[in-house]
Design goal:
Elements (H helix, E strand, L loop, with lengths): L2 E6 L3 H13 L6 E4 L8 E6 L11 E3 L1 E6 L2 E6 L4 E6 H15 L2 E3 L3 E6 L4 E5 L4 E10 L12 E13 L8 E6 L9 E8 L4 E10 L5 H15 L4 E14 L11 E3 L15 H16 L12 H15 L5 H10 L3 H8 L5 H9 L3 H8 L13
Parallel strand pairs: 1-2, 1-11, 2-8, 5-13, 11-17
Antiparallel strand pairs: 3-7, 4-7, 5-6, 9-10, 10-11, 12-15, 12-16, 13-14, 14-15
């Protein structure tokens, strides 16, 4: 046995696990990472309380946000919660320090096949050569759903980190969703603005739809949105883009006895919104606590089954044009306390609160969608 735990794919999810292992003080654990390196920098946004362990590395946080829907501007007071943003670099640096403290081995190659014999897992590289044997493997590489769902969309986006010579942004407020962007024939689009100072912000164009756009279309959409905001003379310092699956398909969180998937592949992405970071943090903390307690590092599902069913209903309703997504989100926030909506997006509401949330949506159309969507399976697992 080479190591107790191997982290295959070393992006955000695995980095959070590495830091959690160090923070939990797991003694004598033999850890290795298998990844070629060169992870692309990205930005995560998430909901948090008044105080958060990540406060020292946050780029910004906001106690109030704006939503622009069909009915106009809606101001959302998030207190006692906050909307926060963190870039990946400090998360990766924390993980590097944790790896050094733990004496973790680093194998700088692309992982290939994982052979699980029930007692340990042999990790191979892309050429099929065995590089490591581990008691457990946490695999955060992206995979398609093991069981296709009724709907498969992407949250795809492009954002510009912009700078202005003049103070034009309000660093105390953000635009969460701005549906004044032209809407696609199938799907929904919106812009958002996350200021980090009076002179700097991340401005992003996002679509929930089946297919990505080409570069020219993203660039045109961003320029159009910036004109809509009335902003001029901006310098673009950095560009971010990506795509996140939004689907009611079932991901196989434990494809073999000693392989556990993390991140989106492990069910951490909320199907109706694409939010992932908070669930990745919960997974990491739980895994470290389980290992410290001498138990198998298999975290609980990121979201309750009833939430996944509600997400499947919403995706189906949007995809079939039964409900307008801008109207859906506007009504959800207008007819509920913001903290209730945010806790729902994190999977932390009670059934009574969820009934109130459902009652605030277009009931007839959502009922039609619900009649076509079955409750998701508990999990898939192969022996």
């Amino acid at each position: 046995m080479d190591v107790d735990l191997a982290l295959v794919g070393y992006g955000g999810a695995a980095s959070l696990v590495m830091s959690a292992l160090r923070d939990q003080g797991v003694p004598g654990l033999r850890v290795a990472t298998v990844d070629p390196g060169g992870v692309k920098a990205r930005t995560w946004a998430f909901w948090t309380g008044a105080a958060d362990p990540l406060d020292p590395v946050l780029d910004a946080r906001w106690s109030g946000v704006d939503l622009y829907g069909p009915g106009g501007r809606q101001r959302l007071d998030l207190d006692p919660m906050r909307y926060a943003m963190v870039r990946s670099d400090p998360i990766f640096r924390q993980a590097e320090r944790a790896a050094a403290d733990l004496g973790a081995r680093r194998i700088g190659t692309t992982a290939g096949r994982l052979d699980d014999d029930g007692g340990a897992v042999t990790v191979h590289d892309a050429d099929g050569t065995a590089v490591l044997r581990a008691r457990w493997v946490l695999d955060s590489r992206p995979v398609p759903p093991a069981k296709p769902g009724r709907t498969f969309w992407l949250q795809h986006f492009r954002g510009w980190w912009v700078r202005s010579e003049r103070p034009i942004f309000d660093p105390g407020s953000a635009i969460l969703m701005d549906f004044r962007t032209p809407q696609p024939a199938r799907g929904v689009s919106f812009g958002y603005v996350l200021p980090t100072s009076a002179n700097t912000a991340l401005i992003e164009y996002t679509e929930f739809s089946p297919n990505r756009l080409d570069d020219a279309a993203y660039e045109a959409a961003l320029r159009s949105y910036i004109r809509l905001l009335g902003l001029r003379d901006l310098t673009v310092d950095e560009v971010e883009d990506g795509a996140i699956p939004m689907t009611d398909g079932v991901f196989d969180r434990r494809p073999s006895p000693r392989v556990v998937r993390l991140g989106t592949a492990g069910g951490a992405t909320r199907p109706s919104t694409g939010y992932t970071f908070s669930a990745m943090r919960r997974q990491a903390t739980e895994i470290a606590a389980l290992i410290k307690a001498g138990r198998d590092p298999v975290p609980a599902p990121a979201y309750p089954r009833r939430h996944l069913w509600m997400d499947a209903v919403a995706l189906h309703a949007w995809d079939r044009g039964l409900v307008s997504a801008p109207e859906f989100f506007e009504r959800l926030f207008r007819r509920n306390p913001p903290d209730r909506v945010l806790r729902f997006l994190d999977g932390r509401t009670s059934p009574a609160e969820e009934l109130a949330l459902m009652a605030s949506t277009p009931l007839l159309a959502m009922t039609r969608a619900a009649a076509r969507v079955s409750l998701p399976a508990r999990r898939t697992r192969r022996a």
